[in-house]
Amino acid sequence: MNNIDIAVIGGGINGSSAALHLAKSGLKVCVIDKDSICRGASGVNAGTLTMHMTRAKLIPFAKKGWELWMNTDKWLSHNIDVKQKQGLCLAFTEEEEKLLNERSKVRKEYGADIKIISKSEALKIDPNINNKIKCAAFCEMDGYVSANQTGDAYTKALKENNVDIIENFEVSNINNSNNTYEIVAKDGKKIHANKIVLATGVYLEKILKLLDINIQIKCFPQQLIVTERMPELLKTVITVAHGKLSLKQFENGTVLIGGGWPGKGNIENGYNETIPENLIGNMRLACHAIPNLKNSRVSRVWLGLEAETDDAMPIIGELPNLKNAFIIGSIHSGYTSGPYMGKLLSEKILGKDVDLSLFDIKRLMN
Amino acid sequence: MNFKKEYDTIVIGAGPSGVKAALRCSKKGLKVLIIDSNQNSGGQIYRAPPKSYVKKSNKSLEENLIQIKFSKHLEENNIDTAYNHTVWQVSPGFKINTFNEEGAVEWSAKNLIIATGTYEKIIPFEGWTTPGIIGLAACTIMLKSHQTIPGNKIILSGNGPLLILVAYYVLKFGGKVDAIIDTSSKIKWIQSMFSLILNPKNFIQGISWIFKIILSKVPIYSNSLVTKANKTQNGISVEIQNIKNKKIKVLDTEVLAIGHGLTPSTDITRLLRVDHLYNELKGGWIPKLDKYFRSSMKGLYITGDGAGISGAIAAEDKGELAACALLKDQNIINEKEFNNTTNKILNRLKRYEIFAKGIAELNSTPTSLIKNINDNTILCRCEDITKKDIKNAVNNGAKNLNQIKSWTRFGMGPCQGRTCQYSVAKVASEQLKCNVKDLGYLTGRTPLRPFPLDKAIGDFEYEEITKVEAAPL
Amino acid sequence: MNLRIHDYFERGKKVRIIVNDDTIEAYEGECLSVVLFISNKKNLRTSPKLKENRGMLCMMGSCQECVVLLNGKKVTSCNIFIKDGMEVKTGNLNEF
Known about the structure:
CATH superfamily of the largest domain in chain A: FAD/NAD(P)-binding domain
CATH class of the largest domain in chain A: Alpha Beta
CATH class of chain C: Alpha Beta
Helix content of chain A: 25-40%
Number of helices of chain C: 1
Oligomer: heterotrimer
Shape of chain C: globular
Order of helices and strands of chain C: EEEHEEEEE
Number of domains of chain A: 2
Number of strands of chain C: 8
Strand order of the largest sheet of chain C: 3-2-8-6-7
Helix content of chain C: under 10%
Number of strands of chain A: 18
CATH superfamily of chain C: 2Fe-2S iron-sulphur cluster binding domain, sarcosine oxidase, alpha subunit, N-terminal domain
Order of helices and strands of chain A: EHEHHHEHEHEHEEEEHEEEEEEHEEEH
CATH topology of chain C: Ubiquitin-like (UB roll)
């Protein structure tokens, strides 16, 4: 395979978004993935588009990402379910009320349009919530995407923009000579490109080692729970002050319960297992927030692996000591801002003046 | 979650193989628990009537007597029973999470024996989702366990010996069988009769069943299959076609009971990610087991029809063998005793090999049934996914069942693909011109059955919810 | 014709359950899905996309086609046993 300007290694939402924008500018791009694209965290996460759980410093980026999600027909494809919903972040105890006030204030400072509202105001917005709340934080800019459709949607968009999608290609080596990168697969296949972007999510630590760069990427197995189809149980997207609950009801009536409760899993053997106590803890929190959720039944549980750096901030930008090599990943609550971050990186690669200093990988290196 | 109880061995499934395995383990001093989602022991084949039914002294059904014996033996041997418990999660090591009417329970054991039996396969046809169409196994359960005839008029369809049993019971109970639609021929009935006889000595009984059916002048359409069904004012109209001469006939009835053989239940083994292999004659995907029913996971044994279909009598012996393997692996019996006991059982099992052909008939699916599925027929009932949807996914590049599931949502509903996985695999393999086994099987997922949230959460105080660190700001 | 066979077993006491707006007589401890089936209540739920009527299929707790609302909660009716006064809703359950 020749004449590739940029090879994006890792076809999740970060890599695929970068690839899409690079391709739109006329470059010849390929996306490489060890599986089918968007089958990692991008395809199995809760799909929440919220400011309530976004890291404060990332709010400006999440807002831009939210805008992109609400207008997918302009850049992605028509076939992905995105819904704007109002978002309520609940506080049940005095301690949580304090936490909510503090955190909402900081998030507001970074540009999120969040305001603290009373119990009665919250119940008017969503009568389904537990009337034992102390207060809530409200944001109009919230909602969700059906994450399992990401792969299908990006595949279509990438193909429409002439991007080669090379799946089932597990990278075992990256060689750099004569200003060309040679990407070698486990089965011996080779791809040559002038530039590379590493976007392999939880496998970033592994792939960086191939380039002699050593940083730690933590890998968290998170459980997600979906119920059977139910009549209307909630009108809004629900989160809680300490960030350990996300609740949404899709158009088809199923309710998705998340919040980062851990299961068991690692990147080595792919085996994963739910931890029943954590499932039950997550469900208790969910039923406390929306009491009528008790009438439903869990239909499916699955696990996804979330990547996180030591300081829980993204890595986006140039790789040090290498020409034409870039990286994007470990974006906390990354699904919301992924499309925008990918766009930013693509602009950086195209030589535009983009400030990615907040995300410089050098901060994590010794 | 409620109390945790620890056992040496837990057996999931109180059918013939599970009961025999539990008894053998218990007799050697192990602390054993047997779990079943039904109200009583017996599994599906000897399924007990509801607890509220009181036996009349003068008359008995043979299956009921066997079930009563099982329960008596379990009690005599101090084996703990957790009936009405639905298993929703099994973890290696082993932890078993169940729920019942009271709430959620966690059990643990060093060793686990899975004896969860089979499901019935029903190959889709146009209109098969019409209410009033039930499985042949479902019909059997209604008759033998619930002592209820499904309808005043009933048509039975499918392959092999279960047709005879169901027809016999409907007639015995005073119901009317409008027709029997058999995909195979009458001659095959005699051949496959062996597989359903509870006791080989009762071959005569089996023949008498066939005679009763013939004497009742029940119309029997051999070499035929159901092509379509529609709801009518009083019931269902059933269109049938003769496979050989293609002649079509329409029959009216109240209830249609249809079934196309059994397939082993692999929910738990797929969840635990043990190795599986595909064997069409044994019912489809089965766990990879050694001669003594050890799986690829240490301490885990799979027995009964869930290890490959061979019938109820063989199931008892298979349960005994698995228990022997467990006892040897735990050093409770030595090599000599193990060999003596297992050789005897293996010799007994050999005798059933003459019935093996009949049992294979019970489970192999005629290709005519698959060819009969048209593009608009629903395959996945939970999510309304049609044959056309599956074909589209395959055309778009889906190469295995998990990928087809991801792209179409088949298997993502409450039944997790139990009802449709077999048919989808057959349809996809036909299109891809590959073997069914090349498509793999659906990855097992928690929960094994829909898990009611009210049972999961129980009563709790907000403060009790496991304190997890707040997410970073 | 009475579809219940009384030759071998005596059933529990006679009770009443409410299905949508109808009162149905049954015996305590009988299986709910069986009672619904023989009481002309074969339509139990509605399929998600095509809105087809669906009813009991496997009687083994596997297929989930017999799901109804029992006292407000979703249950697999083939594993539920009749108690006096049960309130059952069938049909398009997502509209309740």
